[in-house]
Design goal:
The complex is a heterodimer of chains A (about 750) and B (about 160). Chain A has about 750 residues and is α+β, with helices and mostly antiparallel strands. Chain A has an 8-stranded mixed sheet with strand order 3-5-1-12-9-10-11-22, with helices on both faces. In chain A, strands 7-15-14-13-8 form a 5-stranded mixed sheet. In chain A, helix 9 runs parallel beside helix 10, helix 10 (about 355-375) runs parallel beside helix 18 and helix 15 crosses helix 16. The model of chain A has no long low-confidence stretch (mean pLDDT about 95). Chain B has 2 domains: about 5-80, Beta-grasp domain (Ubiquitin-like (UB roll)), CATH 3.10.20; about 85-155, [2Fe-2S]-binding domain (DNA polymerase, domain 1), CATH 1.10.150. Chain B contains 5 helices and 5 strands; from the N terminus they run ββαβββαααα. Chain B has helices at about 25-30, 85-95, 105-115, 125-130, 140-160; strands at about 5-10, 15-20, 50-55, 55-60, 75. Chain B starts with a strand and ends with a helix. The model of chain B is unreliable at about 155-160 (pLDDT under 50). The chains are: A alpha+beta (about 750), B alpha+beta (about 160).
Chain lengths: ~750, ~160
């Protein structure tokens, strides 16, 4: 590849200036004339029959412009995957936080007051919170038509699992639990909805999947998708949590009924109890190996809690069943997954998408094998790690893999060998690896890939249109770099448009660590197309053939005589004149070389590229209190090529901080069916004191399917963090953590148990 | 509820308003003065996104009744740099300390209050200052770095103004 001018360099986010001086308009900042403020009345019970709803007093309150319930909706069942949603509860509420009614009023106080005037008569029903309890005979049914509360089942098997387990030198068998945690993006979910004279609805919201969401909402509202427009302004984080949610539809229904724009912003409490937190999962695992530490077999059962309706939990449980199998050279694997309805908030995507849960389990089990086999944990990973140009047990074609390099480089940077040899009591070091995808073929079944539009105006300004989503991770900046590189212009000439489903291409969105690879390849194709059109005009002006000219840093020139040149801006101006005002518009798409998995065997290459990583944590445990401090962190990640090293590092550091919070601090606690820590007073996320210095190492094997060789980084940044920390806790204390989170009380109790066993 | 008169000096400009006594400073800034740079992240004073400077000291605008600060000088993110970027703003941009940016205004205000008091804070002192400002994107490393790296620069520039 020729020399790169823009890609591979650290640029600040293109939106950073506006974010630094307060000018950026986030969703919660948007205002329209005559705008009303919406509020949602939510269920105070985990499970109850609705006997009656009386909205008369609320409707009569001065300043209230609309009060809506299920009766004001089209009463259509819908959902992103499984049609078990309604916009408001119809006959019963199924979780604490379920939508019962909503109001729109001239100000927040009036909306609040109106909520208190809505009278709902409930008949409380028995509820079920744990998915294991929900599967038991006689458990309360969340949906009457789903016996056993089973929402979905998933099975996968490859090789000869029973035989392989029998023949293993060692088999580690245990149970693990990963808890429910909340994304805690800093901007709560928010929506502004407006309806025009024809009835067409515009929804401004922070969403990772504007185009797919529009299709789901069209069904919910009984409208044609082209009568719904979704616009995505800057928004304050998502981490998987901002996809379909009833809040958007509630705002739309309020706007329809009131005839005025309605802004609906979740209070933090509402966001906790009605967002879509992580799917909690119970795991049973058997993991076998030969005497030399070659993995022989993996057998797991996963039970995940869907909450009261399916968002994406069934796909997440399926992912937890098998994605991690392609981290190592497994030959024999089996998994069974159950997604179970519970009377809890519907669970869904959170950075890692099930693979983070299963990586915690597998990488804990790997360390247990290492102990039994007396093999160094790093060596065990290197022995089994999947390499480049290999095909995994599920048919994944691993083009590039820097996994082994990640383990080696992280170990070197952390001084692994020395620290493993020289043990200090209550200080420990732990390692964990991870794999992931850059796009997930079976997620949106119609197609996968990415697309873009690149428009060049008369002034030479480049506008990039895409249909993915910048949730704050810097996606737009990466796209600007890719387009600038391909066109041969400087970053200040490129602008990235906000996603607007009326204008932007139909991108699938930002999830599955797909944005940079899929969307990046999409805008790259569009940039190539725009470049070719520009080059034609430039060649004419330079009196040369298009093959003999090039554009770099905003100047077209003849390759052999670089002094014969013309600026990109001048070419753009001449092109617009030549085409009677028409701008240069390049479009393009990327079709990834992926396959839909076989419905039976689930075999198939689901992603064009697979990122890998290795993280090493160091901890200190206070033997008297059980308090864990993470004192150092090294993270080596195979990112293909970092389009923007500074932003990539930022993703790694942020992912680790989130994983650290999950491991040591965070847990959504339920009592009597209610979330009892639904604010930042009682649900503590990491502050700057909790996060250590994080050394990031970028491993760049250059992925043949990536734009300029790039893969994604969003989710792999978090996947290994939990086991790296708990393996370090094991190293420090001899205690194996099998349930997240590790709070001091739990660790103290486990250490006492350990002492008893040692004495006994 | 009866409205009450109130005078606020925000970013050097005088505002005379008539507000309901139950309103918090955050809402008055965002809704009445349309200074939406100040963010609401939790409404309980636990995330720091709403941090503004009250007579130079950082406060949670979400917990401050507007009437409590009648006659006071308030600086929001919009007023921090004047027409130019404040060195802290530049440093946050250059060091990659901004991802989603929702915590950034509060973070920068808190950092400014620190640097105004202590021109060369240690890493520990920086962390103490921003411990009440939550960021969910960056893992804080780059934020601490941004504050540290501009501490001297900031002093110099302010010295020049004098």
């Amino acid at each position: 590849m020729s020399q790169l001018d823009v890609v591979g360099k650290s640029f600040p986010q293109i939106a950073a200036q506006g974010k630094a001086n307060g000018k950026t308009k986030f969703v919660t900042d948007l205002v329209l004339p005559r705008m009303l403020y919406g509020r949602v009345l939510r269920s105070p019970y985990a499970h109850a029959r609705i006997r009656s709803i009386d909205t008369r007093r609320a409707t009569a309150l001065a300043g209230v412009k609309a009060v809506v319930t299920y009766e004001d909706t089209p009463k259509i069942k819908f959902g992103p995957r499984s049609e078990d949603w309604t916009i408001f509860a119809a006959d019963k509420v199924r979780f604490y936080g379920d939508e019962v009614a909503a109001v729109a009023a001239v100000d927040k106080d009036t909306a609040e007051e109106a909520l208190e005037l809505i009278q709902v008569e409930y008949e409380e029903l028995p509820h079920v919170i744990s998915p294991l309890d929900a599967m038991k005979p006689g458990a309360p049914l969340v949906h009457e038509d789903k016996p056993g509360n089973i929402a979905a089942e998933f099975k996968i098997e490859a090789g000869k699992i029973d035989q392989a387990l029998d023949e293993s030198y060692v088999v580690y068998e245990d149970n693990f639990y990963t808890n429910q945690v909340y994304q805690a993006y800093m901007e709560p979910m928010a929506t502004l909805a407006d309806v025009d004279l024809s009835g067409r609805i515009t929804i401004w919201t922070g969403t990772q999947i504007p185009n797919m969401m529009r299709m789901t909402y069209a069904k919910a509202l009984g409208m044609s998708p082209d009568n719904i427009r979704i616009v995505v302004p800057e928004y304050g984080g998502a981490f998987g949590g901002k996809m379909e949610n009833n809040i958007h539809l509630v705002a739309a229904v309020l706007a329809q009924k009131s005839g005025q724009p309605v802004k609906l912003v979740n209070t933090r409490h509402d966001d906790f109890i009605s967002g879509n937190p992580r799917v909690p999962m119970h795991f049973d695992i058997k993991l076998g190996a030969t005497r030399d530490g070659i993995l022989t077999a993996k057998d797991v059962k996963v039970v995940g809690a869907a909450g009261a309706r399916l968002v994406y939990s069934q796909v997440i449980v399926a992912t937890a069943c098998y994605r991690v199998d392609s981290l190592y050279r497994f030959k024999n694997v089996r998994a069974k997954g159950y997604t179970v309805y519970t009377n809890t908030v519907p669970t869904a995507c959170f950075r890692g998408f099930g693979n983070s849960q299963s990586t915690f389990v597998l990488e804990s089990a790997m360390d247990e094998l290492a102990v039994r086999l007396k093999i160094d944990p790093a060596e065990l990973r290197i022995k089994n790690g999947i390499g480049p140009n290999e095909t995994s047990v599920h048919g994944w074609k691993i083009a590039s893999s820097g996994l082994r390099e990640c383990v080696i480089k992280a170990s070197e940077a952390a001084n692994w060998n020395q620290k493993m040899k020289n043990k200090t009591p209550y200080k420990g070091i732990g390692l964990s690896c991870c794999n992931h995808v850059s796009g997930n073929r079976p997620f949106a079944r119609e197609f996968d890939g990415g697309s873009g539009i690149v428009r060049i105006g008369k002034d030479g300004r480049v506008s990039v249109f895409h249909g993915e989503s910048d949730m704050g991770q810097g996606q737009n900046t990466a796209f600007a770099q890719i387009v600038a590189e391909r066109l041969g212009v400087t970053m200040d000439m490129v602008n990235v448009a906000q996603v607007d489903t009326d204008i932007s291409p139909f991108g699938l969105g930002s999830f599955a660590t797909r944005g940079t690879l899929m969307g990046g390849n999409g805008v790259l194709a569009a940039a190539k197309n725009a470049y070719d059109q520009m080059a034609e005009v430039a060649a004419e002006l330079l009196k040369a053939s298009t093959d003999n000219i090039q554009c770099r840093k905003g100047v077209f020139f003849i390759k052999d005589s670089p002094e014969t040149r013309i600026s990109f801006r001048e070419v753009a101006s001449q092109a617009t004149i030549k085409y009677h005002g028409a701008p240069i518009v390049g479009t393009g798409f990327y079709q990834p070389p992926t396959e839909l998995p076989d419905p039976e065997t689930k075999k198939g290459n689901i992603s064009p590229a697979y990122p890998f990583g290795c993280q090493i944590a160091e901890v200190e445990v206070d033997p008297d209190t059980g308090q864990v401090s993470v004192t150092n962190f090294v993270a080596a990640h195979d990112v293909g090529r970092a389009i923007n090293p500074m932003a990539t590092e930022g993703q790694i550091q942020g992912g680790i901080a989130q994983g650290l919070g999950w491991t040591l601090m965070e847990n959504m606690a339920y009592q009597d069916g209610k979330v009892i820590n639904s604010d930042f007073v009682d649900y503590i996320v990491p502050s700057c004191f909790d996060v250590p210095d994080i050394k990031s190492i970028l491993v760049e094997p250059i992925e043949p399917n990536g734009p300029y060789g790039a893969k994604g980084i969003g989710e792999p940044a978090l996947n290994p963090t939990m086991a790296a920390i708990t393996n370090a806790i094991y190293n420090a204390t001899g205690v194996r953590i099998k349930e997240l989170p590790v709070n001091p009380q739990k660790l103290l109790a486990e250490m006492k148990k350990r002492d008893k066993q040692l004495k006994g | 509820m009866n409205h009450m008169p109130i005078r606020l000096v925000v970013n050097g400009e005088d505002y005379h308003l008539s507000i309901k006594p139950n309103r918090v400073l955050l809402d008055v800034l965002r809704e009445d003065l349309e200074l939406t740079g100040t963010k609401e992240g939790c409404g309980l004073g636990k995330c720091g996104a709403c941090t503004v400077l009250l007579n130079g000291r950082p406060v949670h605008a979400c917990l401050t009744l507007a009437l409590q600060v009648d006659g006071c000088e308030i600086t929001t993110i919009e007023g921090i740099g004047g027409k130019e970027m404040h060195p802290l703003q530049e440093s946050f941009i250059e060091k990659g300390a901004i991802q989603c940016g929702f915590c950034t205004p509060g973070m920068i205000n808190t950092a400014k209050a620190l640097l105004d008091q202590n021109a060369n804070p240690s890493e520990q002192e920086i962390k103490q200052a921003i411990a009440g400002n939550l960021c969910r994107c960056t893992g804080y490393n780059k934020i601490v770095d941004a504050i540290q790296s501009c501490s001297c620069k900031s002093v110099k520039k302010e010295g020049e103004h004098k």
